[in-house]
Design goal:
Chain lengths: 739, 739
Amino acid sequence: MEEKNKDQHPIKPGSTEFTHLFPPSGSSSDNEIITTSTSVEKQTSFVSFPRVDYVIVFKFPTKGKEKRETLQSKAQQQLDILINKLSRVGLNYQIQRDKRTQGTLFVFITCPNIVLKKELKRERIRDFLLGIRANEYNKEDEDEKKDLFDTNIDLLTDAERLRIVYEILTESEQEGGANISTEVDPFVDSLFPLHNDEFNKKWIHTWSKKSFINDEDLTQIRNHFGEKIAFYFAFLQNYLLWLSGPAIIGSCITLFGFKSLSIWFSLIMLIWSVVYIEMWKRKEQTLALKWNVRHCSKHEKQRLEFKGDRMVMDEITGEQVPFISTWKILSRRAMSLPGVALGAFFLSIIVGCVFVLQLFLHEYYTGPFRQILHYTPTIGYVLFIPTMTNIYSSWVKILNNWEMHKTESSWEYFYTQKIFIANFLVAYLSLFFIGWIYIPFGDHVLPYLTELHISHSHTKVDFNRLRGQLIYFIVTGQIIGFATEMLLPYVMNRLLPKVKKVAHEKKKNDPSSSSSEEEEEEKDKNLQSRNTTKFLKKVYRQVDLPEYNIYTDYVEMVIQFGYVSMFSTVWPLTGLCCIINNWIELRGDAIKICKYTRRPIPYRSEGVGPWIGNMETLTWLSSITMASFAYLFHPSTNIHSPYTPIFTILAILLSEHLYVFIRLIVRSSLNALPNWSDIMIRKGELRMKKVWLQRLLGRNNEEFISSSSSSTTTTTTSMNHSTSFYDVSQVISDAFKQE
Amino acid sequence: MEEKNKDQHPIKPGSTEFTHLFPPSGSSSDNEIITTSTSVEKQTSFVSFPRVDYVIVFKFPTKGKEKRETLQSKAQQQLDILINKLSRVGLNYQIQRDKRTQGTLFVFITCPNIVLKKELKRERIRDFLLGIRANEYNKEDEDEKKDLFDTNIDLLTDAERLRIVYEILTESEQEGGANISTEVDPFVDSLFPLHNDEFNKKWIHTWSKKSFINDEDLTQIRNHFGEKIAFYFAFLQNYLLWLSGPAIIGSCITLFGFKSLSIWFSLIMLIWSVVYIEMWKRKEQTLALKWNVRHCSKHEKQRLEFKGDRMVMDEITGEQVPFISTWKILSRRAMSLPGVALGAFFLSIIVGCVFVLQLFLHEYYTGPFRQILHYTPTIGYVLFIPTMTNIYSSWVKILNNWEMHKTESSWEYFYTQKIFIANFLVAYLSLFFIGWIYIPFGDHVLPYLTELHISHSHTKVDFNRLRGQLIYFIVTGQIIGFATEMLLPYVMNRLLPKVKKVAHEKKKNDPSSSSSEEEEEEKDKNLQSRNTTKFLKKVYRQVDLPEYNIYTDYVEMVIQFGYVSMFSTVWPLTGLCCIINNWIELRGDAIKICKYTRRPIPYRSEGVGPWIGNMETLTWLSSITMASFAYLFHPSTNIHSPYTPIFTILAILLSEHLYVFIRLIVRSSLNALPNWSDIMIRKGELRMKKVWLQRLLGRNNEEFISSSSSSTTTTTTSMNHSTSFYDVSQVISDAFKQE
């Protein structure tokens, strides 16, 4: 009995077990932790377990074909491995059972300071070698040393601490990590840090108040959730501000009833897109420098899945790394293209079907159940297409893994691209279809319908159909998006517990488990374990949450950018709608991260990564769409003349060149402008090199280093009288002599 | 009398004057020089003046409105200034009179070792701070110090020595230079080093023998003439090799009588151009690294002409630099565009006229003097157009100066671009005209001619006209180019001396100057001054030569590349002709530099600079020309149908996108390939930082630096027994209990 409960009852402080958790080496520093611990619970009970950095969810099958013993032994073996790994790298841990479900354990991980310090130092040095934290060099030489390799963990931000612990957990063994990952360990279900409720409350509170998010707020997020998340919010905020341009112009056009699709508006939008993207790149650089993550992508984290054909010595670092011939990689990438194309093809067919259905129902159909059938397409968009997209995603994921990417970053890049294709199709395909096929050739559909004896009332096919679809996407789409993103999880959160409870109740009634239940009940009497259960409840809640997926949020924004840049000439209010949506989105995402997802692992990143490229692609496309629409739907154009397609293409040709030209001008003129981050970087490098030089050459050479303009003054003195050597007047007069 | 001759008679070694030339500080090292001197003449006479690094030609007016005294005093004053400058920076000098022409002096400059050493050290450190000589870090740490800041001038190459002396001469005063330049000093006519005849002989000898120039040969050139020249030859050689592709394919097509203009050939050529350019970029990087000039363009040499509005502190180095607002610069650049456009417009009109004349005479005219008139256009191309181009060049030079460029590099870049426009027009305009205007619409000219009663025999306008013009440009053009480049100067060299002599003879006869002449005659008796005169003759010869202009050579090659990439579908043998021409060109340029131009100042450069961009532009254009020709002149095309223009444009649209796509693929797949220079650079940086780190942290931290994989082994021992804390089997079985 006593044995059995060991994992349930808390470790009493002072008991051998408790002290045992802290190695003598680290014991002193651990006291620090308890004092400096910012974690929510500060009692001396179980929950005062210094601080829980990560929770590993350890799930193993309790039923199956095999006999229970085999299952059990398997699980034991795995848990043993896990524990060994943890203790090898010197992490403290405690195991708790998930009381609600069988075959699930929580391993709470804490990193003692000594281990943290060590890893931190290693990281700092690696960063330095990679040239990250460049602007640190701008400090005075004296501070510099302290600054660069300062391992005072009290100054660490939450995000930094968690990131370092994560490194310890996930790095491969030869890198000195525990090599724990869901790929390697079959029963490790997931690995995530716990939310800091205090911070979250404060965050949501402040943001719900202030209408404008400034860099300080972003830095706060960065300190708590890491750069990757911070960059998303920075991007969103920056984009929000830039949107005001199109919003204002667009509303003016609508108010004063200029005809939309004007060439001028198209041109302005084109320039806006180009300038915005270039400016964001700069902003990104600046932030990356401020946040000390410049070049951090250079630290290419080997994918644990990447094995390579053979091991070779890395030419740069001289370490052994798995190697695979470039040709093989390239060929694989090439070969996976058809696969992606296939997926995209099927997806577009489905999107097409839904769209045609919608078109038919909205435009032609007048038969029975009109009212009800009218909403079927929307359902299709909400339920059917997303599922298809998910299928596509998992398919391309397989392909992407097959491509054998060396590093996480490259894997992520190619995966993002593939995902983007799907979203691109879903978002724009139908609009392209309407604009370029349905409106020009739509009228030919009529006869067939009559033949098929389908009762229909045909409204003339015209430009408004396109506008209607666009509005449908922007307004309805965004509302639906918001609903699925925010309301759904909210409802789920409200419901799930109830459901759970009901299930619980049932269990209570069936006698088999009652005994253990009662034990718990009575145990809940004493304070400690009430805290325990309180803490566990918190864990339960967070375990049930899904992981935060940053892709979807980025995709949403970039797709929206597409609507603005490509179609806002069709409906000038696009910008305005988006600005409103994003203002809410910004808060919504904050809430989402805090309440409806697990706390994300604080990865580092240099910026928004591949999304820039995608936005540039969209801008290029916008030059095509806007030109073609501006021509096609111009009052003076007879859309049904045989020449129309050709002239449309001419318009496209023209505007594409215009786009390239504009981009050229914008870039070159921006490069001419001084760039803060460049200056800081070069300054830092210069100082660093000077320091290095001083140490290399010794102090006596400082004259050279301090300023390269220390002219050759010494020789001057020895030479300056040599003027008298030539009697100048004589020389000159001689030169005249000849005459 | 004795006074007068001081500047003519040599300084006798051992005489006070001679010793005087060398400051006591440097005297020891100077003996070194004499021994290590590689200069041609090694006698103890005047010409054994250790070695003449540079010659300043000092020209001043001897006749004019002002009285002779004023002129004389002016000249004196200027010479005084010059001499002061020289002696301030500690350069030795000697003045000789140009005996042939009055009012001309030669100032022979020699840099004593002490000064050289000092400047060299400064340069080395500056280079290091700019990250030049990156691959030097790859040496072992011990050598590194010696290596990076090695100021042993015996190891200096000719080019390096001359460059450093040049720096001393031209750098501004606050940079510690003499600030001598033709802009600043009115009477300083030119400044150039003397040829090393031995080297030149060897060079031409070897190259005339071997058919293939390898990297060693290039490195030799680099060591003697500096990187800028070396890069030109590297480019030429590399281009020559790549040309073999089009040459072979082209000849095959001609031999086996495939019809030219085939789409396949066009496609192959497009891919070839793209790949070639990308590969050259790599080659360039590699060479830049090998030659230690990577990033050397970062050392932005302030233009002496650049004054700026006010002085500000440079944010990076903290030095005072002239500043001008970016907007002003941008606006000026923008404003100078119309000026360039105007120039280009007039030039194209002239080119157009010459071309139309040619067209008329070749195609239609059958009147009197047919034979003679037939050659007038060629004369136009040889004499008239070049002069016009020169006028244009000087016009854009004015504009370029007005643009206020901060650095030499940027000035050069924009100037090159402007020059390129002119050459582009001259080279291709008529071909475009034939291809896109004359052939499609040419037949409409006929009636007008008949109206004007001009006797003409009209051959049907067809595709062959274009081919004819192309062949005319490539064959005739290149022959003429060769003639003007090589034969003309050769002839001049042969003639000029004779002319001079004749003039000389005349002088002899007129009594006034006879006296001084005779003196010289009798002086020539003794050996020393015979050497003197020998040396002076050498100087005279070189002073008469023009400066080497690298632009023209680059332009020639890039324009030729344009013919190959844009038009080789029109005449498949283009590649072959060019390969032959270039093989000769390569040798011809060598001879030109040695014999027909002054020795160029050995500037550094990272590559061919702006020409890459121009070649890329040409490749883009080639996608347009080849597509349009492939469509226009396809047998199946009826060139006179009204649809032709439109479909041509469609073809262009298509192939432009194809081009962009190809470039994308090529670039990305090349980036995937490992790149030697990248590896070397990153290796170097890593090593450098490690060294820095060792010095910063002290030896005790090496464990971290040497390998980042020194895992947290220390803690392992202290922790590894913590496994026993949990009885795993117990835990698992508990997890099962619930069932």
